[in-house]
Specification:
19% helix, five-stranded antiparallel sheet, 182 residues, Immunoglobulin-like, alpha+beta
């Protein structure tokens, strides 16, 4: 069986095009895989909230300023990704957030605990401070701190205010990991 010159040229041309397509596909795939492989993979359970504290930082006749301080520990032997906390201050009487605060933290060093400061303004009420903790823009921890704020007013014997201050009570704190399907 004799193959014509046109058929040979067409076969060589098709083989060359196929080879070029395979090489280009390999280059494109290697370029796409490099950024994925370069992103560090964090263990699911390397961050957790040790505890939270409240610190009164100022007060007026109508509100009290506090700093809610969660302590987040990175138990991994490498630094964490970028940490950001989004906080919603929710009145428990109507379950509606009074306001939202975002705090950019940065990275937490390996095997260390970071003290985070989240400023909050409260008036007389019971509140739930919902915290969403993100690592590299992925939600990894969520929790809440329940706070009661009560203004104390003491009158003198003539009925005038002699002393005025705010009492705060941290009634509950709970944080849990957010598990994502792989």
């Amino acid at each position: 069986m004799k193959i014509s010159k046109k058929t040979k040229k067409a076969g060589i041309f098709a083989a060359t095009l196929t080879t070029i397509a395979i090489v280009l596909l390999a280059v494109v795939i290697s370029i796409m895989i490099k950024p994925i492989a370069a992103e560090p993979q964090y263990p699911v359970d390397h961050l957790f909230v040790e505890d939270t504290y409240l610190l009164k930082t100022g007060e007026t006749n109508t509100s009290v300023n506090i700093t809610c301080t969660p302590y987040i520990t990175n138990i991994w032997d490498k630094e964490s990704g970028d940490i950001k906390i989004i906080v919603y201050v929710v009145k428990t009487s109507n379950n509606i957030a009074d306001y939202k605060n975002t705090v950019e933290i940065g990275k937490i060093a390996a095997n260390s605990t970071a003290e985070l400061e989240v400023p909050i303004i409260l008036s007389e009420n019971s509140y739930r401070v919902d915290m969403l903790i993100f690592e590299n823009e992925k939600l990894v921890l969520k929790g809440s701190v329940s706070i009661k704020a009560h203004q104390v007013i003491i009158n003198d014997i003539y009925g005038k205010i002699s002393e005025q201050y705010w009492e705060l009570e941290n009634t509950h704190s709970d944080f849990q990991k957010v598990i994502h399907d792989q």
